[in-house]
Protein backbone atom coordinates (compact mmCIF):
# COMPACT_ATOMS: atom_id res chain seq x y z
CA UNK A 1 0.00 0.00 0.00
CA UNK A 2 1.54 3.38 -0.97
CA UNK A 3 0.32 6.84 -0.08
CA UNK A 4 0.72 9.22 -3.02
CA UNK A 5 0.86 13.00 -2.86
CA UNK A 6 0.40 15.11 -5.99
CA UNK A 7 2.96 17.93 -6.13
CA UNK A 8 2.60 19.72 -9.49
CA UNK A 9 2.99 17.03 -12.12
CA UNK A 10 4.93 14.75 -9.73
CA UNK A 11 3.49 11.82 -7.80
CA UNK A 12 5.50 11.55 -4.59
CA UNK A 13 4.88 8.78 -2.10
CA UNK A 14 5.17 9.43 1.65
CA UNK A 15 8.03 6.91 1.75
CA UNK A 16 9.85 8.92 -0.96
CA UNK A 17 9.42 12.07 1.08
CA UNK A 18 10.77 10.43 4.24
CA UNK A 19 13.63 9.07 2.13
CA UNK A 20 14.47 12.56 0.80
CA UNK A 21 14.20 14.09 4.30
CA UNK A 22 16.54 11.44 5.77
CA UNK A 23 19.11 11.88 2.98
CA UNK A 24 18.98 15.67 3.44
CA UNK A 25 19.55 15.27 7.18
CA UNK A 26 22.44 12.89 6.55
CA UNK A 27 24.04 15.26 4.01
CA UNK A 28 23.64 18.17 6.44
CA UNK A 29 25.34 16.19 9.25
CA UNK A 30 28.20 15.24 6.91
CA UNK A 31 28.52 18.90 5.84
CA UNK A 32 28.60 20.03 9.50
CA UNK A 33 31.28 17.44 10.27
CA UNK A 34 33.48 18.44 7.35
CA UNK A 35 32.84 22.22 7.45
CA UNK A 36 36.10 24.17 7.49
CA UNK A 37 38.29 21.19 6.55
CA UNK A 38 39.97 20.35 3.23
CA UNK A 39 37.79 17.23 3.04
CA UNK A 40 34.69 19.37 2.37
CA UNK A 41 36.02 20.26 -1.10
CA UNK A 42 36.62 16.60 -1.96
CA UNK A 43 33.16 15.73 -0.60
CA UNK A 44 31.48 18.44 -2.73
CA UNK A 45 33.45 17.18 -5.75
CA UNK A 46 32.18 13.62 -5.19
CA UNK A 47 28.65 14.88 -4.65
CA UNK A 48 28.68 16.89 -7.91
CA UNK A 49 29.93 13.88 -9.89
CA UNK A 50 27.24 11.70 -8.31
CA UNK A 51 24.50 14.22 -9.18
CA UNK A 52 25.77 14.42 -12.79
CA UNK A 53 25.79 10.60 -12.88
CA UNK A 54 22.13 10.50 -11.76
CA UNK A 55 21.19 13.10 -14.38
CA UNK A 56 23.04 11.27 -17.14
CA UNK A 57 21.35 8.02 -16.07
CA UNK A 58 17.90 9.65 -16.15
CA UNK A 59 18.60 11.06 -19.64
CA UNK A 60 19.71 7.59 -20.77
CA UNK A 61 23.10 8.80 -22.07
CA UNK A 62 24.64 5.35 -22.14
CA UNK A 63 28.30 6.04 -22.90
CA UNK A 64 28.68 8.81 -20.32
CA UNK A 65 26.69 6.92 -17.68
CA UNK A 66 28.87 3.81 -18.10
CA UNK A 67 32.06 5.91 -17.71
CA UNK A 68 30.70 7.71 -14.66
CA UNK A 69 29.33 4.39 -13.34
CA UNK A 70 32.84 2.91 -13.42
CA UNK A 71 34.14 5.99 -11.64
CA UNK A 72 31.44 5.76 -8.95
CA UNK A 73 32.31 2.09 -8.33
CA UNK A 74 35.97 2.90 -7.63
CA UNK A 75 34.94 6.20 -6.05
CA UNK A 76 33.21 4.51 -3.09
CA UNK A 77 36.38 2.63 -2.21
CA UNK A 78 38.50 5.74 -2.74
CA UNK A 79 36.11 7.77 -0.55
CA UNK A 80 36.45 5.24 2.30
CA UNK A 81 40.26 5.58 2.14
CA UNK A 82 40.28 9.38 1.74
CA UNK A 83 37.66 10.00 4.39
CA UNK A 84 38.89 7.38 6.89
CA UNK A 85 39.49 9.97 9.69
CA UNK A 86 36.14 11.66 9.01
CA UNK A 87 34.29 8.32 8.94
CA UNK A 88 35.90 7.51 12.30
CA UNK A 89 34.77 10.87 13.69
CA UNK A 90 31.27 10.35 12.30
CA UNK A 91 30.96 6.92 13.93
CA UNK A 92 32.29 8.33 17.20
CA UNK A 93 29.69 11.10 16.97
CA UNK A 94 26.91 8.55 16.43
CA UNK A 95 28.31 6.47 19.30
CA UNK A 96 28.31 9.50 21.57
CA UNK A 97 24.78 10.57 20.80
CA UNK A 98 23.25 7.13 20.39
CA UNK A 99 20.62 5.80 22.77
CA UNK A 100 23.11 3.75 24.72
CA UNK A 101 25.82 6.39 25.10
CA UNK A 102 26.69 7.37 28.66
CA UNK A 103 25.58 11.01 28.33
CA UNK A 104 22.21 10.13 26.97
CA UNK A 105 18.97 11.26 28.48
CA UNK A 106 17.11 8.08 27.45
CA UNK A 107 19.63 5.88 29.13
CA UNK A 108 19.23 7.93 32.30
CA UNK A 109 15.46 7.46 32.08
CA UNK A 110 15.58 3.74 31.23
CA UNK A 111 18.26 2.92 33.81
CA UNK A 112 17.22 5.50 36.39
CA UNK A 113 18.02 3.16 39.27
CA UNK A 114 21.61 2.84 38.15
CA UNK A 115 23.79 5.44 39.85
CA UNK A 116 25.93 7.39 37.40
CA UNK A 117 29.64 6.77 37.96
CA UNK A 118 31.16 9.60 39.92
CA UNK A 119 33.92 10.96 37.72
CA UNK A 120 34.78 13.91 39.99
CA UNK A 121 38.16 14.24 41.67
CA UNK A 122 40.12 17.01 43.33
CA UNK A 123 40.96 19.45 40.52
CA UNK A 124 42.96 21.87 42.72
CA UNK A 125 46.32 20.49 41.51
CA UNK A 126 45.31 21.25 37.89
CA UNK A 127 44.17 24.81 38.73
CA UNK A 128 47.16 25.59 40.93
CA UNK A 129 49.66 24.15 38.44
CA UNK A 130 48.01 26.10 35.60
CA UNK A 131 48.40 29.33 37.61
CA UNK A 132 52.12 28.70 38.10
CA UNK A 133 52.68 27.57 34.49
CA UNK A 134 50.77 30.56 33.07
CA UNK A 135 52.62 32.94 35.41
CA UNK A 136 56.00 31.72 34.14
CA UNK A 137 54.90 31.46 30.47
CA UNK A 138 55.47 27.73 30.44
CA UNK A 139 53.50 25.95 27.71
CA UNK A 140 51.32 23.03 28.79
CA UNK A 141 48.78 20.65 27.29
CA UNK A 142 46.52 18.63 29.60
CA UNK A 143 43.86 16.20 28.43
CA UNK A 144 41.23 15.53 31.07
CA UNK A 145 39.12 12.49 30.33
CA UNK A 146 36.15 11.45 32.46
CA UNK A 147 35.05 8.30 30.68
CA UNK A 148 38.13 6.47 29.43
CA UNK A 149 41.86 6.26 30.09
CA UNK A 150 42.52 7.09 26.42
CA UNK A 151 44.92 4.15 26.29
CA UNK A 152 45.68 4.58 22.60
CA UNK A 153 46.94 8.14 23.11
CA UNK A 154 48.51 7.40 26.52
CA UNK A 155 50.63 4.69 24.90
CA UNK A 156 52.05 7.21 22.43
CA UNK A 157 53.88 8.75 25.41
CA UNK A 158 55.28 7.53 28.73
CA UNK A 159 52.87 5.79 31.12
CA UNK A 160 53.09 7.25 34.64
CA UNK A 161 49.87 6.30 36.45
CA UNK A 162 50.86 8.76 39.17
CA UNK A 163 48.76 10.56 41.78
CA UNK A 164 47.73 13.98 40.44
CA UNK A 165 49.72 16.76 42.10
CA UNK A 166 50.57 20.38 41.39
CA UNK A 167 54.30 19.78 41.82
CA UNK A 168 54.32 16.82 39.44
CA UNK A 169 52.48 18.78 36.72
CA UNK A 170 54.89 21.72 37.07
CA UNK A 171 57.88 19.36 36.90
CA UNK A 172 56.55 17.63 33.80
CA UNK A 173 56.04 20.88 31.87
CA UNK A 174 59.31 22.44 33.02
CA UNK A 175 61.21 23.33 29.85
CA UNK A 176 64.21 21.25 30.94
CA UNK A 177 62.19 18.15 31.82
CA UNK A 178 62.51 15.22 29.39
CA UNK A 179 58.73 14.79 29.70
CA UNK A 180 57.67 18.34 28.79
CA UNK A 181 57.17 17.82 25.05
CA UNK A 182 53.61 16.68 24.31
CA UNK A 183 50.50 16.30 26.44
CA UNK A 184 49.62 14.74 29.77
CA UNK A 185 46.51 12.60 30.09
CA UNK A 186 44.59 12.90 33.35
CA UNK A 187 41.89 10.42 34.29
CA UNK A 188 40.21 9.64 37.58
CA UNK A 189 42.57 11.75 39.70
CA UNK A 190 45.71 10.29 38.14
CA UNK A 191 48.25 11.46 35.61
CA UNK A 192 48.05 8.44 33.33
CA UNK A 193 50.79 9.46 30.91
CA UNK A 194 53.02 12.31 29.77
CA UNK A 195 54.71 13.23 26.48
CA UNK A 196 51.65 11.99 24.57
CA UNK A 197 51.13 12.80 20.91
CA UNK A 198 47.65 14.10 20.10
CA UNK A 199 45.86 14.23 16.73
CA UNK A 200 46.17 17.68 15.18
CA UNK A 201 42.98 19.28 13.81
CA UNK A 202 42.78 19.58 10.03
CA UNK A 203 40.43 22.53 10.16
CA UNK A 204 41.48 26.12 9.68
CA UNK A 205 42.49 27.55 13.01
CA UNK A 206 42.91 31.28 13.89
CA UNK A 207 46.46 32.38 13.02
CA UNK A 208 47.45 33.06 16.63
CA UNK A 209 47.12 29.37 17.51
CA UNK A 210 50.11 27.16 16.82
CA UNK A 211 50.68 23.42 17.04
CA UNK A 212 49.92 23.07 20.74
CA UNK A 213 46.45 24.58 20.30
CA UNK A 214 45.84 22.66 17.06
CA UNK A 215 46.65 19.41 18.88
CA UNK A 216 44.34 20.35 21.78
CA UNK A 217 41.47 21.14 19.41
CA UNK A 218 42.15 17.96 17.39
CA UNK A 219 42.05 15.80 20.52
CA UNK A 220 38.74 17.34 21.60
CA UNK A 221 37.27 16.59 18.14
CA UNK A 222 38.25 12.94 18.27
CA UNK A 223 37.44 12.12 21.89
CA UNK A 224 35.03 13.16 24.63
CA UNK A 225 37.85 14.77 26.60
CA UNK A 226 38.30 18.33 27.82
CA UNK A 227 41.67 19.80 26.88
CA UNK A 228 43.42 22.56 28.80
CA UNK A 229 46.10 24.55 26.99
CA UNK A 230 48.55 27.00 28.56
CA UNK A 231 50.18 29.22 25.96
CA UNK A 232 53.93 29.53 26.16
CA UNK A 233 53.82 32.82 24.25
CA UNK A 234 51.15 34.67 26.22
CA UNK A 235 50.53 32.60 29.35
CA UNK A 236 46.82 32.60 28.47
CA UNK A 237 44.63 29.61 29.26
CA UNK A 238 42.33 28.03 26.70
CA UNK A 239 40.12 24.98 26.79
CA UNK A 240 38.92 22.86 23.89
CA UNK A 241 35.86 20.60 23.78
CA UNK A 242 34.21 18.94 20.78
CA UNK A 243 36.46 20.90 18.39
CA UNK A 244 35.33 24.21 19.93
CA UNK A 245 37.39 26.61 22.00
CA UNK A 246 37.24 28.95 24.99
CA UNK A 247 40.17 31.33 24.92
CA UNK A 248 41.81 33.57 27.53
CA UNK A 249 39.87 32.08 30.44
CA UNK A 250 40.02 33.23 34.03
CA UNK A 251 40.99 30.60 36.61
CA UNK A 252 37.46 30.79 38.01
CA UNK A 253 36.07 29.86 34.56
CA UNK A 254 38.58 27.02 34.25
CA UNK A 255 37.55 25.68 37.65
CA UNK A 256 33.81 25.89 36.89
CA UNK A 257 34.14 24.30 33.44
CA UNK A 258 36.28 21.46 34.77
CA UNK A 259 33.98 20.80 37.72
CA UNK A 260 30.86 20.83 35.53
CA UNK A 261 32.47 18.53 32.95
CA UNK A 262 33.47 16.00 35.61
CA UNK A 263 30.03 16.21 37.22
CA UNK A 264 28.55 15.16 33.86
CA UNK A 265 26.90 18.53 33.18
CA UNK A 266 26.69 19.69 29.59
CA UNK A 267 29.49 22.21 29.01
CA UNK A 268 29.41 22.19 25.20
CA UNK A 269 27.25 25.33 24.99
CA UNK A 270 29.97 27.46 26.60
CA UNK A 271 32.49 26.77 23.85
CA UNK A 272 32.77 28.79 20.66
CA UNK A 273 33.07 27.53 17.09
CA UNK A 274 36.45 28.43 15.59
CA UNK A 275 34.68 30.52 12.91
CA UNK A 276 32.59 32.26 15.55
CA UNK A 277 35.72 32.98 17.60
CA UNK A 278 37.54 34.40 14.56
CA UNK A 279 34.59 36.64 13.63
CA UNK A 280 34.30 37.98 17.18
CA UNK A 281 38.02 38.72 17.22
CA UNK A 282 37.81 40.61 13.90
CA UNK A 283 34.82 42.64 15.13
CA UNK A 284 36.71 43.52 18.33
CA UNK A 285 39.75 44.61 16.31
CA UNK A 286 37.60 46.74 14.00
CA UNK A 287 35.95 48.41 17.01
CA UNK A 288 39.27 49.22 18.68
CA UNK A 289 40.79 50.57 15.46
CA UNK A 290 37.70 52.87 15.01
CA UNK A 291 37.87 54.25 18.56
N1 LIG B 1 50.47 16.65 18.10
C1 LIG B 1 50.91 17.10 19.28
N2 LIG B 1 50.64 16.41 20.40
C2 LIG B 1 51.05 16.84 21.60
N3 LIG B 1 51.75 17.96 21.79
C3 LIG B 1 52.06 18.71 20.73
C4 LIG B 1 51.66 18.32 19.42
N4 LIG B 1 52.08 19.26 18.56
C5 LIG B 1 52.73 20.17 19.29
N5 LIG B 1 52.72 19.86 20.59
C6 LIG B 1 53.34 20.61 21.71
O1 LIG B 1 53.28 21.99 21.38
C7 LIG B 1 54.59 22.54 21.37
C8 LIG B 1 54.72 23.53 20.24
O2 LIG B 1 53.86 24.53 20.46
P1 LIG B 1 53.71 25.81 19.51
O3 LIG B 1 54.57 26.90 20.06
O4 LIG B 1 53.81 25.46 18.08
O5 LIG B 1 52.18 26.02 19.79
P2 LIG B 1 51.27 27.27 20.12
O6 LIG B 1 49.86 26.78 19.98
O7 LIG B 1 51.73 28.47 19.35
O8 LIG B 1 51.51 27.47 21.65
P3 LIG B 1 52.14 28.67 22.41
O9 LIG B 1 51.07 29.73 22.47
O10 LIG B 1 52.37 27.97 23.70
O11 LIG B 1 53.39 29.08 21.69
C9 LIG B 1 55.52 21.37 21.17
O12 LIG B 1 56.75 21.63 21.78
C10 LIG B 1 54.79 20.23 21.84
O13 LIG B 1 55.10 20.18 23.22
UniProtKB/TrEMBL annotation:
The chain crosses the membrane at residues 12-31, 38-57, 63-84. It comes from the Bacteria. Residues 84-251 form the DAC domain. It is an enzyme of class 2 (transferase). Its EC number is 2.7.7.85. SUPFAM superfamilies: YojJ-like. The keyword Endoplasmic reticulum does not apply. Keywords: ATP-binding, Cell membrane, Membrane, Nucleotide-binding, Nucleotidyltransferase, Transferase, Transmembrane, Transmembrane helix. GO terms for molecular function: diadenylate cyclase activity. It catalyses: 2 ATP = 3',3'-c-di-AMP + 2 diphosphate. Probably a homodimer. HAMAP family: DacA (MF_01499). Belongs to the adenylate cyclase family. DacA/CdaA subfamily. Catalyzes the condensation of 2 ATP molecules into cyclic di-AMP (c-di-AMP), a second messenger used to regulate differing processes in different bacteria. This is Diadenylate cyclase.
Amino acid sequence: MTFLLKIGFLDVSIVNMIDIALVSMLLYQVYKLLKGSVAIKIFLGFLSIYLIYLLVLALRMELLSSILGQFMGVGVLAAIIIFAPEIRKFLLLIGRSSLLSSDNMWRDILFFWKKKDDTSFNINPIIEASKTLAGSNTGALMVISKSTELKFYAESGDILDAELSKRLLISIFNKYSPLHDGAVIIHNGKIKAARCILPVTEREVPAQFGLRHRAGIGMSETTDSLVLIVSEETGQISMAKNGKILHNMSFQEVRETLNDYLANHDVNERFEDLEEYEMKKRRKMAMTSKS
